Amino acid sequence: MNNALREQLLKAGLVSSEQVKKAEHQSRKKARQTPKPKKVARAAPPLDSAASQAAKTRQAQAERDRELNRQRDEERRRRELNVQIRELLTRHQLNDGNGEVPYNFVEGSRVRRLYVTAEQHKRLTEGMLSVALFKTRHYLIENEVGERLLALAPHLVVHRNQATDAVDPDDPYARYTVPDDLIW
Hints:
By secondary structure, this protein is an alpha+beta fold. It has a domain at 59-164. It contains five helices and five strands. It has helices spanning 3-12, 17-33, 47-92, 118-126, 143-152, and strands spanning 101-107, 110-116, 129-134, 137-142, 157-160. Strands 4-3-5 form a three-stranded antiparallel β-sheet. The N and C termini lie far apart (115 Å).
């Protein structure tokens, strides 16, 4: 009991000094009998858990390594393809920059102009030559080279006229030819 409360109860005559001693004795006895909370030691992770954690770490590292190797291989293949394409185009290009006849063609939604010789212009309109775009440069190439480029990278051949060898026998304008100066 609290000293102030004990003194008040004794003065009022509600408790005797023996009862106060008995209550104090019981409170001390109760305090000794209640077990103190034991300190809980941190349990070390079992060896199985540490081993499984290490295995998970190794597996994640292996997965990252596989992904990096895949990306490197893909980049290497892309570079090799670009080298093949550049070599093929530079070896077989027909435009040398000395062309005086403009040849207009559509690339995407834009009309482009390439200066070619008169013979090259004729072959382009007949569908015997193709125009390929590689790294912002247009190359004039034979159709066979264009076919090989299509096999390597379909996005490179920009323009190819279809050969129009067949003449319709029922065409009423077959005997009237279009003059060369009207071809754009």
